From TrEMBL, chains A, B:
Signal peptide: none annotated. The lineage of its organism: Bacteria, Pseudomonadati, Pseudomonadota, Gammaproteobacteria, Steroidobacterales. This is Fumarate and nitrate reduction regulatory protein. PANTHER family: CRP FAMILY TRANSCRIPTIONAL REGULATORY PROTEIN (PTHR24567), FUMARATE AND NITRATE REDUCTION REGULATORY PROTEIN (PTHR24567:SF75). It comes from Steroidobacter agaridevorans. Gene3D superfamilies: Jelly Rolls, Winged helix-like DNA-binding domain superfamily/Winged helix DNA-binding domain. One of its GO terms (cellular component) is cytosol. One of its GO terms (molecular function) is DNA-binding transcription factor activity.
Length: 249, 249
DNA sequence: CTCGGGCCTTGATCTAGATCAGCTGGGTGG
DNA sequence: CCACCCAGCTGATCTAGATCAAGGCCCGAG
């Protein structure tokens, strides 16, 4: 069942007739535990495609591409962004293992943003028409899809509030930490897979401001940051700073 | 939902056995045109509850209330917002006739924000468990729900970008205009049902800034605004200003 | 009718964060 | 080994928009 040793064969999964749900796929757990009969699980399994690896800087989809599929990140980090006609990049989100990209494309049948790999990225790809059709027969799967979509609305609302640089940065670090923790990674020590500029474009700051906030947080003893490695040394205070931003989550 | 406010004629609508979809309900059109058989349409109809009116300042639900239902606005305007522990109000959205509130509550089973009527508001209330169950039998309805959810993700992303006061204000006016137009109201002359402060809290501005931007837009001949009445006099330029904000929509 | 209280506007000042400029240091290719 | 380059850091300055202050206007209550 470990997907670590699954080879990155593109196209349909390479394990013939067995069920091999990868542990990171957001759908697997929810559906497995619902106790569906084997033929439905097989249906779900068949419409999964394991794709990758995408290398740093490679695009998974681009703005305007026709929408066909959503994808769960198995490993690596994906950044979604749009570029406005003055060349400013607006980062919409970072997607860690277990998280699903492409959900905001459903309404227009086109991807409304670009998705790019920040490091080496493996994905589980689900044809959306197929998974939606299957969901009509698996209420648990439908429920899971509704939840994922609803969750993303909340995530976006987070960013949109009127908060200071410190508050937004603290919220960013805390959510990263929680998301890593949810996947079994260390909540207090992790790698920032994105550049300072990416963080800045996500938090609506200048990259210089990101640097300065990091430094100030470090001088205050809240974090220890060295290049891309970061350690949260005082979660209490970070959570306190972040609490207003995260309240609506 | 529904404080002490549920009106007489609670429950099933007052038109006996006929189907009487209200024209504003976001689901009706999509489902009607899909040509489902009569019994399914009846199911959909039965789980609708028409509630209201809510008067200006009355709450429809509050942050933390258990989530049971989504609701389509039939008339009036609903504002959703959260208050942080410094008392700052963060407006998350304004909902016009035809639009659906409560979608972001699915993932946590609680409403993550407050919803308040800005004027006299009538709603169609749909029990979420019931409509989700029905959706498994009506792919068109499921599709509609997915679309609505996905749309809201995009809407939230709009706000979260890094744009100037002018850009955000122009985008706000253009989207309002488009949404009114979609419901058959005049796209160029409409009423701002919210206060300047509400607009400010939505656009992450101070209310003084909202005033000043209105004045500047008016002096530039792009709009004519008098108290709550506004007329868009130069859509071209407004759309141009808004285009970067709206690109990802 | 007058009074009072929101809501809105306008002007003056202030500041968080942007922008500009210059520097550093690690990683990579030759 | 060096040379270059780009991510990141830091200091100096600038500015969009916040904040503070002062009226004005509409509207509802008495």
């Amino acid at each position: 069942m470990s997907d670590a040793n699954r080879r990155p064969t593109p196209g349909i999964a390479d394990d013939g007739d067995e069920f091999h749900f990868c542990s990171t796929c957001a759908f697997s757990a929810a559906c497995l535990e619902s106790g569906y009969d084997k033929s439905l699980l097989r249906d779900l399994h068949v419409l999964v495609e394991h794709i990758g690896p995408f290398h740093e800087g490679e695009h998974i989809f681009r703005e305007g591409d026709p929408f066909t599929a959503i994808a769960a990140v198995r490993s690596g980090t994906v950044k979604t962004y749009v570029t406005d006609h003055e060349g400013r990049e607006h980062v919409q989100g970072f997607f860690l293992p277990g998280e699903v990209i492409g959900l905001n494309a459903i309404s227009q049948a086109r991807y409304p943003s670009n998705a790019v790999a920040l490091d080496s990225v493996m994905l589980c790809r689900f044809s959306f028409p197929n998974i939606a059709a299957l969901a009509t027969r698996m209420p648990g799967l439908q429920q899971q899809l509704f939840k994922l979509l609803s969750l993303d609305i909340g995530k976006a609302a987070l960013l949109s509030g009127n908060f200071s640089a410190d508050e937004r940065m603290a919220a960013f670090l805390i959510t990263l930490s929680r998301r890593y923790a949810a996947r079994g990674f260390s909540p207090n020590r992790f790698l920032l897979t994105m550049t300072r500029t990416d963080i800045a474009n996500y938090l609506r700051l200048a990259s210089e401001t990101v640097s300065r906030v990091f430094r100030r947080f470090q001088d205050d003893g809240m974090i220890q940051v060295e290049r891309r490695e970061i350690e949260l040394k005082d979660r209490k205070r970070l959570e306190k700073l972040a609490e207003d931003v995260l309240r609506s989550t």
